[in-house]
Amino acid sequence: MNLITEDGIKKIIKNGQLITNNELILPKNSMLTPSAKSILADHKLKLVLIDDQIEQKRTTQVMSNASDMAAKKIGKFILESGGYLNEKPEHMTQVYGNLLVNKDHKRIKLRGEVDLLMGEIMKVQIRANELNLNNLVSDLQEVFEYIGELSRSEVLNESINTSQVLGFNHQEIREMSHNPKKYFDHEHLFNITYELGEIPILLNSLRALIRKTEVACYEAFKLTDSTVERGDLMQGYNRLSSVMYIIIFKYLDHQY
After folding, report:
1. E strands of the chain, at which residues?
2. What does the pLDDT look like over 124-174, one tens digit per residue?
3. 188 — phi, psi (to 5°)?
4. CB–CB of 40/12 below 8 Å?
5. Using a CB cutoff of 8 Å and minimum separation of 24, what contacts does 36-41 make?
6. Can you say whether the dihedral through the CA atoms of 88, 52, 64, 238 is positive or negative?
7. 150 exposed, middle or buried (CB, 10 Å; 0-12, 13-18, 19+)?
């Protein structure tokens, strides 16, 4: 819930960005204090709570303008509702520039999954290094850096600059992961068990974490029609799952 106070509503009205045809448009999780509602009535404004898809587009616009708004010294931080704060509450964090969101915001959850995934990759690298699997360490480092590129793209709202992982483009990755018999002389791993050994199990755990991160990405950027605002990020994490599948087959094929 995003609680808007009397002071907050005054600043929103003064800014005017969220007002259209005498309607104050706010995200559907907004709630006004009684005094804020009184201010709204005094200005003869109607409160309209918008759905997720419109909210997503408006949030994107607010994010793109957040730094400019801060420069106007209306407030140090801007809220998704259009309100402003001079101090950051402990339950909020910066999602982009000076835009504050609650710490359970879906994009913050995505970043948490990414941090966990990258930490687990480093753990597997340490184990692979102990076993002198230097090429595996290198491949995992490339995966690590690609995830960093995806994360940077999400945080800065920029396009993804890297199109290849392990020297393969997205189409080649898809082809190899869908046809392991052709490329690695192995059938699909439908039932992975402990008998495969330590490294394949560790790699498969990373693959599971990548899939979990992919779901978090979808939740963060999905629209009401089930499409996503950042299809490039979705494709990136989807391909990473396939990359980890390929790495497992490379290990089983004694390429490390």
Report:
1. 2-4, 19-20, 23-27, 30-32, 46-50, 77-79, 84-85, 92-96, 99-102, 164-165, 168-169
2. 999 999 999 999 999 999 999 999 999 998 988 888 887 789 999 889 999
3. -60, 145
4. no
5. 36/4, 36/5, 36/6, 36/8, 36/9, 38/6, 39/6, 39/9, 39/10, 39/13, 40/9
6. positive
7. buried
pLDDT in tens, 50-83: 664 455 555 555 555 554 554 455 567 777 666 7
Tokens 């970043």 map to which residue? 111
Q: What is the DSSP letter of 223?
A: -
For 42-94, the three-class secondary structure string (H helix, E strand, C coil) is HCCCEEEEECHHHHHHHHHHHHHHHHHHHHCCCCCEEECCCCEECCCCCCEEE
Q: Rounded to whole angstroms, how far apart are CA atoms 64 and 153?
A: 14
Q: Which residues in the chain are classed under CATH 1.20.1200?
A: 106-252
How much of the chain is in helix, strand and coil states, percent to nearest 5?
A: 60, 15, 25
- In the three-class reduction of DSSP (H, G, I as helix; E, B as strand; rest coil), residue 17 is classed as coil
Measure the N-to-C terminal CA separation of the chain; round to a whole number of Å. 51
Cα–Cα nearest to 69, from 24, 20, 25, 15: 15
The CATH fold of domain 106-252: Hypothetical Protein Ta1238; Chain: A; (1.20.1200)
Do the Cβ atoms of 206 and 120 come closer than 8 Å? yes
Please answer whether residues 89 and 79 qualify as being in contact, where contact means their C-beta atoms are separated by less than 8 angstroms. no
**Rounded CA gap, 15 and 17, in Å?**
6
pLDDT digits (tens, 9 = 90+) for 32-52: 777 778 877 888 888 877 664
66 within 8 A of 78, measured Cβ to Cβ: yes
Total-model pTM: 0.69
